[in-house]
Structure formats: C-alpha cells, structure tokens
Design goal:
It is a multi-pass membrane protein. The chain is mostly helical and about 575 residues long. The protein is built from 30 helices and two strands.
Length: about 575
C-alpha cells in the first residue's frame, strides 16, 4: 500500500495534467456558453499554476489553444497579447539590469553604502536592508539576494569569530562568490515557488551563542524581506507591478496611461520606505530584543570584532579597484534612463513625451518601454573600453576592438524569458474574460459588495491576496485576481485602481514560507533558519504590510490617481449609472 502511494506521489504531476481537464469538463458541457468556456480555461490554468504540474510559462500558453477552439478569440487576437508594450518594458528594463549585474556595478554600490553606514548591529541591519531594497528596485530580487547574502554571512563570520580569526583577518569563503550561474541560481525570477540555491562550502563552524544565532537569523531575513519590499517601489522592480500596468491597459484601453513609471513611483516608493522602516524595527525587536541602546553600539570588548568586520567590507571594496569605463558608462545610461522615465509624462507638468511626440489627444506616443529599449540598444552599441586598437591575445599580430557594454550571449544566459510568456498569458486571460462576457457576469454577481465600505473592501482583499501569494506564484496571483477585481470595481461604482493597486502590492508580501518567493529560498538554503523562524517573523510582517498598503491607498494615492471619482475610462454597459455623476465619491 505504501508503495502504491509513493508511486502516485511520484507521478502526481502527470496525474494532475491528465485528470484536471477531465474533472472540470462538466462546466462547459452543462453550461454551453462563452462565459463558461472562458471560466473553464481560467480555472484549469489557475489550478495548474497553483500545483505547478506544468511549468508556469507553459501553462500561460494555454489561451493560444483553448480560446480559438472555444470560439472566444481568434488566434491572431490571442497571440498579439503576448508581446504588448508592458512585455517590451519588462524586456528593456531587464536588459539594463543585466548590464548593471554584468559589470558588477551593483556590488560596488552595496559595498560602498555598507562602508558609509558602519557595522553596529542596528545600523548594519539597516545598511543591508537599504542596499538590498535599493538594488531590488532596479534589478531582479533574486539576483540582489544572491549577491547580498554571502556578503552578510562574511561580515557575520568576522563579528562572531574567535580572537584567532580576528587577528588573522580570515574571510568567509562565501563572500568570494561571484554571481551564481544560471544552473545554480533559482531559475524562477520573481514568479513563483523556488528551489533553493546551494551555498558555497565554508569553514567548519565555531560554536555560537544564542545571541549570535539570533543575529544571524535576523540578518538573513532582513536581506530577503527587503528584496521583496524594495521591488514594489518601481514599475519594473517586480513582475506583478507590470502585470497591473498591462491589465489596466488591456481591460481599460481608454485610460490615459494612468499607471506609468512616475505615478507608480509616487504611490509605491513612500509605501516601500514606511514598510522597510517598520520591518527593520520589527526584526530588531523579535531577534535582538528591546535594548536599542545595545543594538546601536558594541561594548568595548567587541571593538576588535567590529574592526575586523569593517575590514572585510573595506578589503572587498578595494579589490574592485577604481571604476572602469564600462561601469561609468552603465551608471550614466542608468541615470539617464530613470530621468527619462520620470519626465516622459509625469502628469503634473508637460513631459518630453507630450512635447516631442504627442498624439491627437496630446498624450505621449512614446512609452516607458520605448525609453527602456532605446537605452538598451545604446548599451549594445557603446564599447566597454575607451575606443582604441588593442592586440588580440588569441590571434597575435591582429588588432581587436573592445566588446560592447552588453552582448546577446550575456542577455540570453540571464534573461528569464519564461516571465514574458507568463505576462502574455495573463493579458490573454484578461482579454478572453472581457470578450466572452465573463467579466460582466462576475461584475453582476459582485454588485452586492457595494454596501461594504471601500476601505474595508480593500483591506480584506489585501489580506486574501497576501495569504494566497504565500503558496502560489505572485505573478499568477495578480494575473488571476486583477481581472476579477476590475469587474467588481465596475459593478460597485468604485475606482478600479482603488482595489487593483493595493492587491498588486499585497502580492509581494510573501514573507512566511521559504518556497513563497526565490529570495526566501536563497536565505533558507544558507542555513541557520527554520521554517518556524521565517513564519514567526513573516506573519506579523504580512499584517504590517497590509496595514501600510491600506494607509497608502487611502491617503497619498487618492490625489495621484484621482481615486475619489469613478473614471470615465472605466465605464461599461453595467456601469452607465456610475457615469451619471462623475464625482461619485469612491473611498
């Protein structure tokens, strides 16, 4: 009997893939309508995404098969959803992030900031959290965590080392790790359950006190949590943010580009800062206790360890040498990219997009994706060294030009193409829901929620999404929830962004389980943590996150997105009554 169960468990993925489509067949057979056909597709994909019986990106391709066969959308209409402007923004943003990683610019930034902040316990935690959050605003949360965790463990090795270790100035071998290669790194960037990476071998561990163990746990968690928190601050910081932008553009094509880089940053950056500070305080209280005076300074006997830890950071920063031409060029292009994003169409003044490339309505024809691809192409053109002729070491006697800042081999090794398909699958589902009438049907069924106060609705939905994302991909979570939330908002005459924005942020609050997100898996793989430690710290952090998001959506988000009115671009046949008074109060 035990062997039978083991066999079923071993073949569970095959059984799920074969049985689920059959078990769900009564829905389209008993209710032969386009709404039921679309619901069948969505439920099937949702279950495949939650169980991961198939790779997430493969499941995302189902609409290409199911929608044409069920008469919901033509194949050409479905396929065009897989390379929308949001996907282009994602690709362009990652091109720039890959260049930053390739030239080790992110490591230089991290070490420099840590040198400035110092190594006192509370300040060390804050330093690692600030650096990790800042880097994850621009590059992959996974890559940021994979770089920062070895640095953190190297510093801790010196803080907790024996006097002999301190005198010799020994280093933790994990600190010498370069960026993990594609075979060792978690392959699912920001998009689902993760397989932990393997940490580098280290020296035999010395016996640590209980206080040192708690500080190590605190440091590990501060890195993975701040990576997830930092990703919410920018539109390209983590994939759910881009899912929201794409869904809003797909479901509400008449919207005047309300979700862009500048508007998102104005809403999400203060949210990120508040959540990061509260996380820092919570982790201190949980692992280091209430003795803040001690947390902000060592005793006299710890000065040697403090100096040794500082020397580790200083030595590694010195090994990087002076900034190369490539690093300076990537830095300049990165700053130009951010400035162009902010000033393209900021809303509160005429941006360069409105002035230089306006359409008939005066809106910018160039998008954030246009800017990202423009800067990316420049990186493929500019040389990585000051132009000059050098000898080719492989072929003596022949001259060789320096390589470009970015090359396709590097991009193909580091680009998570699976996310592009996953984004496209979500946009295809949203379009299918709209065309089949499923969205309108859901809106009618959710109309009774109009009697619930909007703040309570947003809070409860955030809790639901934050719970769901602990055991499912954050991309799949937002892909499944956002079309439903849009329909609900239309049905109850509520600004769609009032529920879609907070739930998108809540999808990044995966703090409780190692498998919830790749950063969690990485720190868990380095040891020193139990699932109970992460769950204990993450539970209250989830609640804090939901409360901060609720505060944000009911305060500074209102003027940014004009949430106090029901927008003209959100109207449908079921919301005509909402438009009779366009100043109908929302939240």
């Amino acid at each position: 009997m035990a062997t039978c169960w083991q066999g079923l468990w071993a073949y569970r993925s095959y059984l799920i893939v074969l049985l689920l489509p059959i078990l769900l067949l009564p829905l389209p057979i008993l209710v032969p309508s386009k709404e039921a056909y679309c619901a069948y597709s969505i439920i099937l994909m949702a279950l495949f995404w939650c169980t991961e019986a198939l790779p997430l990106a493969v499941t995302a391709l189902f609409p290409i098969i199911l929608f044409p066969m069920m008469g919901i959308l033509d194949a050409s209409e479905v396929c065009i959803e897989y390379l929308k402007d949001t996907n282009v923004l994602f690709i362009g943003g990652l091109f720039v992030a890959i260049a930053v990683e390739h030239w080790n610019l992110h490591k230089r930034i991290a070490l420099r900031v840590l040198l400035l902040i110092g190594v006192r316990p509370a300040l060390l935690l804050l330093g690692f959290m600030l650096v990790t959050a800042f880097l994850s605003m621009w590059i992959s949360n996974t890559a940021t965590t994979a770089m920062m965790v070895p640095i953190a463990h190297a510093v801790l090795e010196q803080l907790h080392g024996t006097p002999k270790d301190i005198e010799e100035g020994s280093d933790n071998p994990t600190f010498e790790l370069q960026e993990p290669n594609s075979k060792k790194e978690v392959t699912k960037l920001d998009n689902g359950k993760a397989t932990p990476v393997t940490a580098a071998p280290s020296k035999p561990k010395i016996q640590k006190t209980q206080e040192q163990i708690r500080f190590t746990q605190c440091m590990s968690l501060c890195v993975c949590y701040s990576a997830s928190i930092g990703g919410i601050a920018t539109l390209t910081g983590t994939t759910p943010n881009l899912v929201l932008q794409g869904q809003v553009s797909s479901i509400f094509p008449q919207n005047p580009n309300v979700v862009n880089f500048a508007s998102w940053f104005g809403f999400a950056f203060p949210t990120m800062v508040i959540l990061l500070i509260l996380s820092w305080l919570w982790l201190q209280i949980l692992f280091l206790g209430f003795n803040f005076r001690k947390n902000f300074g060592f005793g006299e006997q710890e000065n040697e360890r403090k100096d040794a830890a500082f020397q580790v950071i200083h030595r590694q920063h010195k090994l990087l040498g002076p900034m190369s031409f490539a690093e300076k060029a990537v830095t300049i292009l990165f700053v130009v990219l951010v400035l162009l994003w902010f000033t393209r169409e900021p809303g509160f003044f005429e941006g360069w997009g409105n002035l230089a490339f306006p359409n008939d309505k005066g809106e910018s024809m160039a998008s954030d994706g246009t800017v990202a691809i423009f800067i990316s192409i420049i990186m493929f053109i500019l040389p990585s060294k000051i132009p000059g002729l050098t000898q080719n070491p492989e072929k003596p006697g022949r001259l060789k030009a320096p390589p470009a800042l970015l090359n396709w081999k590097t991009v193909s090794e580091k680009m998570p193409w699976n996310i592009v398909f996953l984004l496209g699958g979500g946009f295809a589902l949203a379009k299918g829901s709209e065309k089949s009438g499923l969205s309108a049907w859901l809106g009618d069924k959710l109309a009774p929620l109009q009697s619930v106060p909007p703040p309570a609705t947003a809070f409860l939905l955030c809790l639901l999404v934050a719970t769901f994302t602990e055991c499912a991909s954050n991309v799949a979570t937002t892909t499944l929830f956002l079309p439903i939330l849009a329909s609900m908002a239309q049905a109850i005459c509520l600004h769609p962004l009032y529920v879609m924005l907070p739930c998108t942020l809540a999808a990044s609050l995966a703090f409780m389980l190692p498998v919830a997100t790749p950063p969690n898996a990485i720190v868990f793989s380095f040891g020193g943590l139990k699932v109970s430690d992460m769950a204990r710290a993450g539970f209250l952090l989830n609640i804090i996150g939901v409360l901060v998001i609720t505060l944000a959506i009911n305060s500074w988000a209102i003027p940014i997105f004009d949430l106090h009115t029901f927008p003209f671009w959100a109207h449908s046949n079921t919301t005509t009554q909402c438009l009779l008074n366009t100043t109908t109060p929302g939240p």
